[in-house]
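Model it.
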Amino acid sequence: MLSFRLVLSVLSIVASTGCRASGSVASLQHPEAEVVTLSAEQSLLRDAAEIGRATGEDPSHVRERLDFQVRSGPALAALRRAYAKRLVGVSRVPTDRGYALRVLLQGVAPPPEVPKIHEAEGIEVTIEVGARFTEEQLRDLVASRQRELSAGAPGFLSAFVEERTGDVIVFIRQIEGRSLLTDQRAIEGILGAPVKVRPSTGQFVRSSMAGSGRHVGAGAGRPGCTGGFPARRGRQRGVLSAGHCENDNVYYNGVDGFGYRLSVLQESWTASTDVQFMVGQSLAKQSAAVAVRPEFFEEAWPNIRVRELVGSVGQRALAEGDQICKYGAASGYSCGKVVRVSFAPPFPFSDCNGGPCGETWVLMGPLDVGTPFKCEKGDSGGPWFVGGRAVGITMGAETDDETGRCFYAVVMSVDRINVVGAELHVAGQEIPMPK
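Modeled.
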């Protein structure tokens, strides 16, 4: 059975598989283990090696691509702004000389001159035209034909324009006794354009994971989530996770190896946000605040690896096809690629705190058809990253319950953590204290 699930419900963030779901201090200590802290360079090499392992590519080639992915982010964001009216998308493409940014515009009118953008200095930029729709044009068309789509293609969930090709992609829910091809042909007739189909249930189901060694709640059987990036708000340092996670009896094993009881300082679960900022005190030393370092987990017990947080990648700096890695307390470390930079999980099958989700989420998919990334119940709130740079926080995923395969994950960009008044706790960057 396929399902989109909010992954998960109560935040209990630990690094060790050796602890039990209880409130005792002893259960929240790491067993003796060597903790490896990775620098920014080591983190990128690790991601390149993992992606190469999964795809069969030479890790050195992957490393070069990841370097360009990070380096060209500001230029890509600037190009999005410069071509906003006709923009279909900006993508990163290989060339004989390395990599370039490719801008795809709607229509056949000659493209305007490439603007002189200081962020793009030293980066090759190409402009192409000929796409049928911008995203806004397709959205307006779908809205105007919604009744026809519901009647002619009952499996239709949503549609978007693929940024790299200009193709119209549709998510279709399988209807018993009805073929996807039938719905595809009906949609093409209604929209007046060819479409490519991606089958999906589109369902977000909030589901729980019984307490395990990785999740410590109020007691056995309580569900858990994953701790994400370190954050700061004024003088307070804390941990980010997903806003849909519950707020009571939350415990955390930090990168320092000690257990803490956390409380939610502020949270936001809306059509466009799913984040909470938590602070707390040591269970062993009640007067000690959470020792939040500018580090986050890449992998937990028995091979504990943490990464230094050196910066972030904004949503506008992402492109379809970008390779991003993740950590989940349940599923561990794996990598995927950006399927959609701005995605609206379809309602009523999705649920953003009881209502429709906005077109603000990042949709992640597997690196290719044969290499699904890992996601399980309990990964909500976990970090997505490139090397030591923060990208987003896990909100939910579409998985196959029988095989455990993960098809898609929905991620909130770290751009939106300011909704809870927080900033990333980045190494070497002191945040000014309030007056």
